Structures are given as structure tokens and as C-alpha cells.
Amino acid sequence: MIPVRGFEGKTVAVFGLARTGLAAARALMAGGAQVALWDDKPATRAAAQAEGFTLTDLTTADWSGFAALMLSPGVPLTHPAPHWTVERAREAGVEILGDIELFARTVNAAPEHKRPKIVAITGTNGKSTTTALIAHICAQAGRDVRMGGNIGYGVLGLEDMHGGAVYVLELSSYQLDLTSSLHPDVSIILNISPDHLDRHGGMEGYVAAKRRILLNQGKGDTAVIGVDDPWGARICTEITAANRRTIVPVSASKAMGRGIYALQGMLYDATGERAVEVADLTRARSLPGRHNWQNAAAAYAAAKGLGIAAEEAAEHLMTFPGLAHRMETVGTIGKVRFVNDSKATNTDAARQAMSSYPKFYWIAGGQPKIGGIEALVDLFPRIEKAYLIGEGAPMFAQTLAGKAQVQECGTMSAAVQAAYADAAASGQDAIVLLSPAAASFDQFKDFEERGEAFRSAVGRLAAPASASKGAA
Fold first, then answer.
1. Hey, which bits of 201-285 come out as E strands?
2. Mean pLDDT for the chain?
3. Distance from the Cα of residue 224 to its chain's centroid
4. What is the mean pLDDT of the segment spanning 166-176?
5. 101 three-state secondary structure
6. Burial group, residue 303, by CB count within 10 angstroms (0-12, 13-18, 19+)
7. Residue 467 scores a pLDDT above 60
8. How many Cβ atoms from other residues are within 10 Å of residue 148's Cβ?
9. Coil, strand or helix: which one is 184?
10. Helix (H, G, I), strand (E, B), or coil: what is residue 409?
């Protein structure tokens, strides 16, 4: 872990005892701080106690004795309303921060020769793939790379730092809202589209949270900005005017006089005197589709920003094995292939997967975002049939009415069984696609748990098929 510096001998309140909160608690204690841990959920408190943590009831505690409140990113800071811990902290004049801020302060307190390189990635979609892709390139290039943040391990649970390490961090808007001191060597904003608006009070607040990733960059740093959406294009223009860091625009939809872009799957580097072809991404099996070409352009730019040679970065793009829960093939039964895209928690992410297949049997639903699936109407003709689950099923069914066949299945297991039965009955090569276009929290802990439920359901289908082959 990374022992947190700056709170030696002080008490820090930690609210939210899932992965991030417990990793922060361990790191604070390792750095010499005392911690006061609490969570609103009795089951989560019990799990923390079972792991050996002592709890402090923050509802009755004296907040004047706390040096800071470490708030887990899933807890509302400002919208729809500040959480009660936020209000208590503000009343007592207690600083509110997140685990990324604790990491940033620890890095900033280290002697310069011991500070690692930091690559920070945000965006509405593609964060996890790009984060994993950059980590892969760095590892293949021989760097001591650690990946975490909003993917895998909480940042403070990663191996301790040294001057030769590279931390590749996926950052959500929630995490960025709680961060002010992070100084990435490479910052990436992949794309911005409406998402989490209830947590940020609207689009302006959401964009402002994303922009926080650029706060502390200066001369010698690199900012990689996706310019295929109006918000990214505006940010790129505005920071170019500031002219303090190296700015690399990336695109997967247009050629640019300066930047890195992909057209029809060919990746071009136009950061020099002329545009140079660097990779044929259509040959990268784990990076299908235009959205992944943008991810690849950003990862290539980041690698160059870290000093990895262009040729080496391009070579390692092609060997990326892919990412779980993002257009991941989890099984094939006969002519039916099952694709797990559980990470598609909004319509923009679902669009990327749905656009990759001419026809598919679609499993969708969950906790709906604002607007439901209205934004996907142009892709409805590709749907052979939709199998709807969770809280959003009735809303999605209404939107699909008259435009695609629909079956409200309720559960993941029922949806997988129904989709397989129809796909197998077609006698054709078929895709069963889980791309929910909704959050998972109505039925699952997170999108990973939802994806694993899909994988398990496919496994249960495959088992009888394997058994019958063995009997034959």
C-alpha cells in the first residue's frame, strides 16, 4: 500500500467502507494517522468489523477533533443534496477530500527524485479500456507500472511509490470532485457526453469536474484531449490559448493538421512536420470499432508523453488482450456468441457496442439514466429482439414499442436463457449482447457483478451442452 503522509498523529474520519474507504483507512493508519470509520449500511459496517476495523459512530462523534473527512466517491458531495457527513464536516470546518487527493498530497510531499510518473485518465466513456491499454504499453516497454483508481484497486492499495514507477489512474467525475492537488505528467480527457447529471447539478457541473484533471499541469506536462465532441473541442481550444503544457488533440472521426487521429482504422501521428501512419488498428483484435480507435490514439499519445518511442508504443497497441466487461466474448454455444458489455452504463457506451454488430439479440436495462434509451433509436433496426431486465425495463419497453420485438425478463438469468433460445432457433450466426445502457445498482453492486452474473448464466447454458456432447 501507499502510506499516506501529512496526517501523522491526527484523526481522519473515513465515511464509506467499500473498497476505496477501507484502502484509504489502511493507508492512513500506515502513515501514522488515526481513523474514525463509519458507513450508513449495517452490512458494510459489519464487514469492516469482521476485517478487524474498529468503528466510530460519526452521527454522534465530536467532529471538532477530526483533521479531515475522507469521503468515498459514491457519496454525494453537492447534488442532489450534500450527504449528512458533508454537512457535519462543513459545520465543523473539517476539510473534505478523497483517496486520490490523499495520494496526490503524499506524492507532492515526497522528494522530487522519489516521485513517480502519473497518467490520469477521465472521460464519459472508454476510461477503463484506455487505462488498461496504457498500463499494457508501459509494462511491455519495461516500465514498473501500477494501475488503479476507478478500475481494479483503489489507488492507496497499490504498491508504494518510487521514482521509476508509473501510476496509471482511471478517475471518475466523483473522484475528481474531491481532488485538488493531483499533478499528472499526462492528463487525458477522452470524451464528454451527458452523464451523472444528478450528481453534478447539470452538464456545467459535470464538465467542470472532468476539467479538474488539468488543474495543476504546467510546462513539461502533456494534456491529451479528445476533440470529437463539442465539450472536448472547447476545452482543447481553451487550454491551447493558455499555452503552458504540451497539448495533443486526438480524434477518431477526422484528419487533423496537428494531433493524433484514426481514420478507417489507420492510426496517424501528426505531431511532427507531417502525418505518419503508425498502426493498422483493424488488426488489433481487442480494439474493434471507432470508439476503441479513439482510445488507442489517446493511449499512444500518453505513451509518447512518458518518453516511450513511437514505434514501440504502436507495436504494443497491437498486443493488448482486452478488458473484462467491455465487448468481452464470454462464451460461444454452437453458432451463438455471447458478448459481455456490462460496463455500458449509459447510452453513449451502449452505442459503441451496438454499432459494432449489424444484428444482435440485446439484453438491456437496469437503473435508467436521464432520457432512457431514446438516444439509441437509430440503432433499433439492428435489434433482433430486446430482453429487458431491472428497474428500467418498463421504460425501455415503451421506447422500443413498435420498433423492435421486446420481452421483459426481469432477471439476468431469464434474459440470457430467452435470448439464447431465440438466437439458437434462428439457425444463423448470432450475437447475444449484454450492453445495458443503464446503471447496475438496482440489482447488482456494480457493473462488474452484473457482468459476472451474465458470464455465470452463459456458463450454466454451456454446461448441459458440454454434458450432452460427452454423453454422445
1. 222-226, 246-251, 259-263, 266-270, 276-280
2. 94
3. 17
4. 96
5. helix
6. buried
7. no
8. 22
9. coil
10. strand
Reduced to 3 states (helix: H, G, I; strand: E, B; else coil), residue 161 is coil
- Provide the CB-side half-sphere exposure for 396 (13 A, CA): 32
The pLDDT, as a whole number, for residue 102 is 98
**Whether 445 is catalytic:** no
pTM: 0.80
pLDDT attached to residue 470: 52
> Which set of grid coordinates corresponds to residue 59?
452521527
Task: Give the DSSP letter of residue 369.
Answer: P
C-alpha dihedral over 56, 15, 445, 129, to 10 degrees?
-140
The per-residue pLDDT for 182 is: 98
What contacts 287, CB < 8 A, 6 or more positions away? 129, 133, 281, 293, 295, 296, 317, 320
What is the mean predicted confidence (pLDDT) over 217-234? 96
Task: State the helix-helix crossing angle for 19-30 and 99-109, rounded to 10 degrees.
Answer: 30
Alpha carbons 245 and 362: distance in angstroms, whole number: 44
Q: Which three cell numbers stand for residue 419?
A: 435470448
- Verify whether residue 150 is a known catalytic residue: yes
What CA–CA distance (Å, rounded) separates 293 from 296? 5
Instruction: Tell me the DSSP string of 298-351.
Output: HHHHHHHHTT--HHHHHHHHTT----TTSSEEEEEETTEEEEE-TT--SHHHHH
Q: Are 138 and 168 in contact (CB under 8 A)?
A: yes
Bridge pairing between strands 165-170 and 117-122: parallel
Rg of the Cα atoms in the chain: 23
Rounded to an integer, what distance in angstroms lies between the CA atom of residue 202 and that of residue 154?
A: 27
Compute the distance between CA of residue 300 and CA of residue 186 in angstroms, rounded to an integer: 12
Asked if 134 and 274 count as a contact pair (C-beta separation under 8 A), the reply is no
What is the C-alpha to C-alpha distance for residues 447 and 334, in angstroms, rounded to an integer? 27
Instruction: Band the pLDDT of 19: cuts 50, 70, 90.
Output: confident
Catalytic hit among 83, 117, 125, 127: 127
Helices (H), 55-161: 84-92, 99-109, 127-140
Reply yes or no on whether 191 is catalytic: no
All three cell numbers of 338: 455471447
Q: For residues 334 and 306, what is the distance between their CA atoms, to the nearest angstrom?
A: 45
Q: Which of 83, 136, 196, 200 is catalytic?
A: 196
Could you tell me the three cell numbers for 274? 507531417
List the catalytic residue out of 125, 136, 150, 325. Answer: 150
Q: Cell 493558455 belongs to which residue?
A: 242
Find the farthest-apart pair of alpha carbons in the chain and give their distance in angstroms, rounded. Answer: 73
Q: How far is CA 463 from CA 133, 248, 298, 384, 456, in A?
A: 33, 49, 40, 25, 10
